[in-house]
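Re: export button greyed out
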Amino acid sequence: MLSVRNLINTPSLTRDDIRQILDTAATFEQVNSRTIKKLPTLRGRTIVNLFLEPSTRTKSSFELACKRLGADTLSVAGSSSSVVKGESLVDTVLTLDAMNVDMFICRAKYAGSPEIIARTTGARVINAGDGKHAHPTQALLDLYTMRKRFGRLEGLRVGIVGDSLHSRVVGSLVPALRTVGAEVTLVGPATFLPAAPEALGATSCARIDDVLGDLDVVYMLRVQNERLDGAAIPSVREYAALYGLDARRAARMRPEAVVMHPGPVNRGVELTSEVADSPRALILNQVNAGVSVRMAAIYLLLGGESDVVSD
Amino acid sequence: MSYLISGARVVDPQVDLDRVAGVLVGDDGRIAAIDPSDDEVRAADPVVIDGHGQVLVPGLFDMHVHFRDPGQEYKETIAGGVRAAAKGGYTDVATMPNTTPVCDTGTVVTYQLQKAAEANLARVHPIGALTMGERGEQLAEIGDMVQAGACAFSDDGHGVQYAGIMRTVMDYVKQFDRVVISHCQDDSLVGKGVVNEGVVSTRLGLAGWPAQGEEIHIDRDIQLSELTGCAFHAAHVTTAAGVEMVRAAKERGDDVTCEVCPHHLFLCEDDITDAYDTNFKMNPPLRTAEDARALREALCDGTIDCLVSDHAPHATHEKQVEFERAPFGIVGLETELPLVLTHLVNPGLMTWQRLVEVTAVNPRRRCRLDPVRIEVGGEATLTLVNPHDPFTVTEDFLAGSAHNTPFIGARLDGRASHAFVCGHAILMDGKVAC
Ligand SMILES: [Zn+2]
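Workaround output, generated via the alternate export path:
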């Protein structure tokens, strides 16, 4: 049993919650490697995938997770939903909720949307990313990937490089890493750093070369081209030179250190192909972990026990 | 109608009055006697109001409210707004000009005065816009509005972005002996900010509104006030550094004043939780706990001149949305006095004299209204305050049309029981008249 009703962000998760989710995900990963990957566990349960802004990757991962658990799913996308026609989020959720929904999985443009849904319905809520705030399942799949590689999370030194200010991943990954005893440094120009990294539990550093040699995990964020207009960085070229991870820089990493990225990768900007495709890179492992971790979160929130699926 | 308010402590620092006294209000709307003789009382045959345990002060004046009329009457009307004022014990309010259309001509001023006269509760003193449409580009018809009765000028809701425009505005306003009230917000720094930049913006993943976006603007306008000689009043200051700028300007002898809102005194950014309650979204935003403490001290020590609500009604459906999409602002007229009683006056941090200065004396002086003094022959514009009448703030307690306040559920110590405008009762036993 988790200590929370909903998965809205990671600061509300205890260390034991995180352990349960990762352990359950490990069990599901074995199922996912079978030829027949379906479990009838959630047969008859209804899950709404409410994606109010486009997200192919996260949405596919959640849909697959729901299907493998045998749940009935209903996908409501931003462009087809009435939210864009001026209906409020509250009204959209009330309408869907009237159809006896067990869980909402929500991706939203605005921070705090999952909290509004949780207040509006009795159904369970999983935050699939809200504004620049949080993306807890991404953080959990990242932890899963790190734990699998290192056999532990406690004491890991993680550097998150890039636009932390506008990253929902950072809002979830940093608190989760702190809860399990890892250390986190946010790396980037001040224009890319949040105003108070300490509020998340991180330190910060402007120069990647100052910390690179100490890190176990180098977590590269995507440079969003739309951010360039605000003059946060002068050019992609300069960013790549100062912060990009190429083979020359990667050579200064610790031998066992890994490279991670929430995707999609801007090849040649934050990562060169040489690094992205090297054995250090766990980017596809992260994607792979996504389905198992999301299955675990859905399953545990809908009342599953940690050991039920070990048949 | 004549009234005798008996047994109350009467406090008015303007006439050096602070003692228990009976105050007889004549049917001509003036104060007929203080401690009237039996003959005087018999002759007047007044309605007697028992003021024992209560405090009688000059009628309260809130110089920063939004009544949304004309144009957004679904949020609030002048008729509804003056009910909220009366409920809070306010006999006078000054309305900000960001209506639709903007109050940037004498015609709109006249309309608002007319609506207020019809409502016949708290008096409304319209504030005119500095620039046409509050766009910060071209002078509004200030002279026309002065003639129609505008009491001050402001582009509240927006900062005037260009220093050169503000200089022109101050140069022009000066001839009319009116104060320029500045909503201090440098848009190039504030951008899309919705909460204080720092811990809360990081924690909630919301765009930050840095303190310097306000302070740089305050500093600029103080300097422009020195350049032009125009009286300047900084609206709703929220930071310790902003208050320091005002303090320093006063020490230099500048004609500079400022005001503060209860929410910036008694709430801070830490109160915005991951519930994303949109009733904590206001502009300027809630700052740090240290800022709030500095504001409380500055209000008590005389640096901050006026207490205002920035009463900003919104319809329920407008606030029941995502935080980033919700409009800024909360209602405050009904809770303003109770909050200050509870947190400053009753604990002994603020004297009653100081309360009268910041809620009645200074705002009137700044808005060029005649002073209201508790003296024989003076206009009987009075507020009777019961400082020990505990209650819980509920939606029913609010008398205006809107309920958007984070103080719903708050337990507060006391409130206004009666209020009179020139002898006309607008609040009786805590109930709004008519
Ligand atoms: Zn304002």
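The interface with chain B takes residues 8-9, 11, 88-90, 108, 110-113, 115-116, 119, 130-134, 168, 171, 194-197, 199-200 of chain A (CB under 8 Å). The button fix ships in the next patch.
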